[in-house]
């Protein structure tokens, strides 16, 4: 990064910042993925009901 006092992101956040390395972010990642898939399925079902009338 130009003008930054560090060269790599690990120097700022550390490796434990990333999901799956014991920080607990993996749980929230999985929950958000499940909610997104659920929203897509519910939306698809709703569209099928509207189009079948």
Q: Could you explain how this protein is built, in words?
A:
With 53 residues, this protein is mostly helical. The protein has a domain at 24-53. 58% of the residues lie in helices and 0% in strands. The protein contains two helices and no strands. The chain has helices at residues 10-13, 25-51. The longest helix has 27 residues, at 25-51. The relative contact order is 0.08. The model has no long low-confidence stretch (mean pLDDT 77).
The gist of it:
With 53 residues, the chain is mostly helical. 58% of the residues lie in helices and 0% in strands. It has a domain at 24-53.
Using brief descriptors, characterize the structure shown.
53 residues; 2 helices
Label the structural class.
mainly alpha
Query: What's the story with the biggest beta sheet?
Result: none
Taking all Cα atoms into account, the compactness measure Rg is 20 Å
Helix content: 55-70%
Strand content: under 5%
Work out the number of β strands.
0
User: Mean of residue pLDDT?
Assistant: 77
- Termini gap: 56 Å
Order of helix and strand elements from N to C terminus: HH
Q: Number of DSSP helices? A: 2
Low-pLDDT residue spans: none
Globally, the shape reads elongated
Reconstruct the topology from this structure.
Elements: H1 10-13, H2 25-51
């Amino acid at each position: 990064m130009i003008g930054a006092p560090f060269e790599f992101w690990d120097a700022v956040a550390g490796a434990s910042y990333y999901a799956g390395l014991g920080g607990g972010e993996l749980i929230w990642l999985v929950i958000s993925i499940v909610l997104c898939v659920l929203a897509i399925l519910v939306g698809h079902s709703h569209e099928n009901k509207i189009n079948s009338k």
